[in-house]
Design brief:
Number of helices: 34
Shape: globular
Distance between the termini: 30 Å
Structural class: mainly alpha
Number of strands: 11
Strand content: under 5%
Strand order of the largest sheet: 5-11-8-7-6
Helix content: 55-70%
Radius of gyration: 33 Å
Length: 801
């Protein structure tokens, strides 16, 4: 790796002596560093601000600010190095809400149980939350030894601990932003440069100030919202998907307005038609009728809601069936179609816009480096750009001297030892290559014990482990292991288990000895594969990593079963032991269809990550709002009047929905997940209607349903559908027939080549290398084969010179 600083005297003298005649046109340092910024943005696929929006410490115009320039360089490098830590700290702030005492119960002195338990003592370090959350006794419905304020039992931090963590996190983020300010030369005009950069930086400053003020005045009620907001400013993928959702709103609202009109019409008709009939209790007025029909659209109460009228007159089925056909089968699927269409358009727009942005930025970078308008850029200029990318922009990637030579050779497709514009435009594609030297895959035996590596018996062992017969033998062992576990647990599976604790503690020792034998075989398999293939190659296979993970779990299970310890939870032991069965999943890899689905799934997960983040943030917002609005409303405390009001919610109490509450964050998130699943969501709402004494609580759950179930869930479905077909095409190309492009062999998703000469250019690098595409943005598919054909193929570009 090249580590020489551009501020070193020999480097700076080289700059000044080589291009003295060009200084009058534009400072060379400025041109190289600005070109590096443009190349970085082209590679990453976004631009926070144009080059004019960044302070350039390498510009000769700024030589009088030597100290400022050096501080700017150091701050810039720290910004990149600490970005992951800053995001992690933001996640700590985000998760803090789950483990700190909820604000609603920090001061609950108006509750009789608190006044009785606390007496004259001051509140403890958890506020009054500890009293409420640990309160057990006879409930309002006369059940004994039950939690009076059901909660998730996740309050691990005291109020002071939570405040200390929050102060520490806010301090770290403030320090990180100060480094960003230093990176911009301590100039507010750069730090708050117009556009995206200004909005993000201004938002972060405002949020931090609000967090600090709330901590200082001691009112942290709204801090969870601020924590969520500060995290969102650091997650670009989240911002992108949120913007996509916002752009969908008008089209989705058009369809929802159609649904609203239909619900209004049918509710109106139902109120008139069902008056003075048993069905009339669900249609007492227009609003209640609309609410009843909306629940029907979600299928939560269908066909129960129609039974009163259908029992009296079968022709009423025309009313209900026609409504469900129009609303549920047509309009709800129409919303899905709109979401899918809009998301497809968004993906295509991203792809095209990134290509246009990359072409523009690379063209601008080429113009900066081609100072004399000769139509080409020299090798020295390219290497200087790579030096800056290495030192100051490691978010691109760190390149060794050999990798720099290879990348240059791949750019110089006609062997002219200079780069023309057409070649330069491939830079962002070449940078996607993850290069690996063949010698890096050498195993420990090959490097440390060469005489063993070349021996006949080791060669035979290596061939055996790499053969398909070895995997087949392991698969047979897996089947036998599964049969053993099936026989071991047969009595429980058929419901004949006696439940004798003494028998449970022995865990059928004869079977466990056999299980230990299987575990030893799995360990032997891992050891053989790692020894023969080397850890680097072994871990590149998702199948091997899965086997390694499950094998580690089985080892832990065996130690837990046999090692003497005082903690003896047989259910936990059985659960851990069942991890052995997970290895059966690898049998699916032997089936072509499952292997294809597995590969597609692994590719879809990164693509759908950001939309799931949006769902998480929305659920977090509603769970936090639920705590503020309904914290403590679901209670079984006989001294609390709310518990007696809750007993009137017969559907809620008969279903034992006590844990479905907003008493803490985890419980609130569970309620919202239940709403996402939709089934029985009205039963949960009933409890809040009776405890609040108002039906306005419906609006809270209705808004969540519209945003998350009708909106985001459909977008997630769209993402999965779109990504599936994209990745299916990508994988079909990836595992197509082997190709050979100008001496480079492309097999599967990798290219194999000799590094000495590439695309007609001598690299000065010896040895064999392999390369694969390492995507930067996962939301848009990449045709890996097409990229490698373009990168490793020679062009017919005329000599740049």
């Amino acid at each position: 790796m090249e580590t020489t600083s551009l501020f070193s005297s020999d480097k700076m003298s080289k700059y000044s002596s080589t291009h003295r005649d060009e200084r009058e046109m534009r400072p060379r340092g400025s041109r190289v560093s600005q070109a590096a910024m443009l190349i970085r943005d082209a590679y990453l696929g976004f631009q926070d601000a144009p080059v004019e929006g960044y302070y350039d410490p390498y510009s000769y115009d700024n030589e009088i600010r030597t100290v400022r320039n050096q501080i700017s360089v150091v701050c810039g490098r720290l910004v990149v190095q600490l970005r992951g830590a800053a995001v992690f700290v933001c996640w700590v702030l985000f998760m803090l809400t789950f483990f700190e005492p909820p604000t609603w119960c920090r001061d609950a002195s108006d509750l009789q149980i608190v006044a009785t338990s606390r007496g004259d003592d001051i509140k403890n370090e958890f506020g009054d939350c500890k009293i409420l959350f640990e309160a057990f006794g006879v409930t309002a419905d006369m059940e004994e030894n039950k939690a009076l304020y059901p909660n998730f039992d996740a309050m691990l931090l005291t109020i002071s601990q939570s405040r200390s963590i929050e102060i520490g996190c806010v301090g770290f983020i403030a320090m990180y932003m100060l480094l960003q300010f230093g990176d911009d030369g301590f100039f507010p005009s750069f730090f708050f440069y117009r556009g995206y950069k200004r909005w993000i930086r201004a938002s972060q400053c405002v949020i931090l100030i609000m967090l600090l003020l709330s901590i200082l005045i001691g009112n942290t009620t709204f801090n969870p919202f601020l924590r969520m907001a500060i995290l969102g400013t650091f997650l670009r993928g989240f911002q992108r998907e949120l913007l996509t959702l916002i752009k969908m709103i008008p089209d989705v609202l058009y369809v929802l307005s159609m649904l609203g009109i239909i619900v209004l019409f049918y509710a109106w008709f139902g109120v008139v038609m069902f008056v003075d009939s048993p069905q009339g209790r669900t249609f007492p007025n227009l609003l209640e009728g609309m609410w009843t029909l909306w629940i029907s659209v979600t299928t939560a109460n269908y066909p129960d809601v129609s039974m009163d009228s259908y029992s009296e007159n079968r022709l009423v089925a025309i009313y209900w069936v026609s409504f469900m056909v129009i609303s549920f089968f047509y309009i709800m699927n129409l919303i899905l179609a709109v979401c899918t269409q809009q998301y497809d358009k968004s993906i295509n727009f991203r792809k095209v816009s990134r290509e246009k942005l990359a072409k523009k930025l690379l063209s601008d970078a080429f113009t900066l480096l081609d100072q004399k308008d000769q139509g080409f850029v020299s090798r020295e200029s390219i290497m200087n750009v790579m030096a800056i990318l290495n030192q100051d922009m490691p978010e691109v990637k760190t390149m060794s001297s050999e990798e720099k030579s290879i990348i240059y050779a791949l750019l110089d497709k006609n062997g002219s030892d200079s780069i023309c514009l057409d070649e330069f435009l491939d830079w962002s594609l070449v940078m996607l290559l993850n290069l690996s030297k063949e010698s890096d895959y050498a195993t420990l035996v090959e490097t440390k014990l060469p005489y063993v590596y070349h021996s006949q018996w080791y060669t035979q062992l290596s061939d055996a482990v790499k053969s398909n017969r070895f995997d087949t033998a392991i698969d047979v062992i897996l089947v036998l292991n599964a049969m053993t576990i099936l026989m071991q647990d047969y009595s429980m599976l058929v419901g004949h288990d006696t439940g004798d604790p003494e028998n449970d503690e022995t865990l059928d020792t004869k079977w466990e000895k056999l299980e230990t034998l299987f575990t030893a075989l799995y360990v032997l398999e891992v050891m053989l594969k790692v020894t023969i293939n080397g850890w680097k190659k072994y871990k590149e296979s998702a199948r091997n990593l899965f086997d390694f993970f499950v094998t580690c779990m089985t080892i832990l299970a065996s130690f837990y079963v046999y090692y003497p310890n005082t903690y003896n939870n047989t259910n936990l032991i059985r659960f851990i032991v069942m991890a052995r069965v997970l290895r059966l999943v690898r049998l699916l890899f032997a089936i072509e269809s499952f292997r294809l689905l597995g590969a597609i799934t692994l590719d879809i997960l990164p693509a759908s990550r950001d939309i799931f983040l949006v769902l998480l943030f929305v659920a977090y917002f509603f769970a936090t709002s639920g705590q503020l609005l309904y914290g403590g409303y679901i209670t079984r405390d006989p001294s609390n009047p709310l518990s007696h009001a809750l007993l009137e919610a017969t559907d809620f109490t008969s279903s034992a929905y006590w844990p479905n509450n907003f008493n803490d964050m985890f419980s609130g998130m569970n309620v919202l997940f239940n709403l996402l699943v939709v089934n029985n969501w009205t039963t949960c709402i009933q409890g809040f209607e009776y405890t609040t004494g108002s039906k306005t609580a419906r609006f809270f759950f209705l808004f969540f349903h519209l945003i998350c179930v009708t909106g985001i869930s459909n977008v997630i479905t769209s993402v999965v559908i779109t990504s599936f077909f994209q990745q299916l095409e990508v994988i079909e190309h990836r595992y197509g027939p082997n190709e050979r492009v100008d001496g480079t062999s492309i097999r599967g998703s990798r290219a194999f080549f000799a590094a000495s000469v590439l695309t007609g250019t001598n690299t000065g690098v010896q040895g064999k290398y392999s390369a694969h595409i390492q995507a930067v943005n996962f939301d848009v598919d990449i045709d890996e084969r097409a990229v490698m054909r373009r990168v490793f193929g020679r062009s017919n570009t005329p000599d740049s010179k």
